[in-house]
Design a protein that fits this description.
- The protein is an alpha+beta fold.
- It has helices at about 5-25, 110-120, 155-165; strands at about 30-40, 50-60, 60-65, 70-75, 80, 85-90, 95-100, 140, 145-150, 170-175, 185.
- It has one domain (about 5-180).
- Helix 2 packs antiparallel against helix 3 (about 155-165).
- It starts with a helix and ends with a strand.
Length: about 190
């Protein structure tokens, strides 16, 4: 199995659902926008307290609407290696990726650089004519785990995070999802 093509297929499957969701939301409101970046309060645990809402309706009062995909691609668990790390992919949902690792610490500057690139807080890569922003929607870093909603980011974001983990000394990386129990499709 070609892992790069597989991850791209999973991402595209999610993004197709996201496009349909965004179109449906736009049609159901007078004012609204997809992929709206928000700075959260001091108590937020998200990286840099930044979050990208899937859709925000604003018909008199702002309302955040999140996509809850009803389909995911079915696959058997995958085992292999990534650099010097063993890699296992048990479940992979583009909007809910849990990366468990055995690195003692993750380098703050590398995490920040990755986040700047893939969340793009200042919209440096923003293209006003583009249908999608191509950014992650959130990241939460805890000891031994990183949780990412990859949003509409390109598959390269996934591989770049694995590279960051392996470069930080991880010798074991397990990919899963907190929403693993969902109907699968082929």
């Amino acid at each position: 199995m070609d892992a790069v093509a597989f991850v791209a297929q999973l991402r595209d499957h999610y993004v197709d659902q996201f496009r349909g969701f965004a179109e449906q939301q736009r049609a159901s409101c007078a004012k609204g926008s997809s992929e709206v970046k928000l700075r959260l309060g001091e108590d937020s645990e998200l990286f840099d307290r930044l979050y990208c809402a899937d859709f925000v309706k604003n018909d008199g009062q702002a309302e955040i609407i999140e996509l809850n995909p009803d389909r995911a691609l079915a696959f058997s668990p995958i085992s292999g290696s990534f650099g010097d790390a063993s890699l296992s992919i048990e479940h992979l949902r583009w909007d809910d990726v849990l990366l468990h690792h055995d690195s003692e610490t993750l380098p703050p500057q590398e995490l920040s650089r990755w986040f700047q690139r893939w969340f793009d807080p200042e919209d440096e890569r923003h293209e006003s004519s583009a249908e999608l922003s191509r950014v992650i929607h959130s990241m939460l870093v805890r000891p031994g785990a990183v949780s990412i909603d990859f949003g509409t980011a390109e598959p390269e974001a996934f591989w770049a995070m694995l590279q960051l983990l392996e470069g930080a000394g991880a010798r074991s990386i397990q990919v899963s999802s907190s929403k693993a129990a969902m109907p699968d499709v082929n």
